[in-house]
Amino acid sequence: MLTGVDCSGFTMKIFQHFGYYLPHSSIFQRSYGTAVSWANKQPGDLICYNAINGIGHVGIYIGNNRVIHAGSTATGIHTSVANYRSVNCVRRIVR
């Protein structure tokens, strides 16, 4: 899975692989799990990013101030500095 998925599809598939359910929407993923402060984020946490109308993007924190995410269905999966754009929230997905 290197291309062909959007951001929420990528996070949905990764969490699904480990037995967790997430909806295929960054807006709805923002309401799953538990809120975590930026200072307390851990690898595996979702980072939700702002857009003009609310949540616009989501990725998975991988540690060392990096996030893995699908930039678009065309550009595929890559890593970036975790705060490369305006962060809305951090969510920890727990059972």
TrEMBL record:
Domain NlpC/P60: start-end pairs: 1-95
Keywords: Hydrolase, Protease, Thiol protease
Top-level taxonomic group: Bacteria
GO biological process: proteolysis
Molecular function per GO: cysteine-type peptidase activity
Family designation: Belongs to the peptidase C40 family.
Stated name of the protein: NlpC/P60 family protein
Organism, as annotated: Anaerostipes hadrus
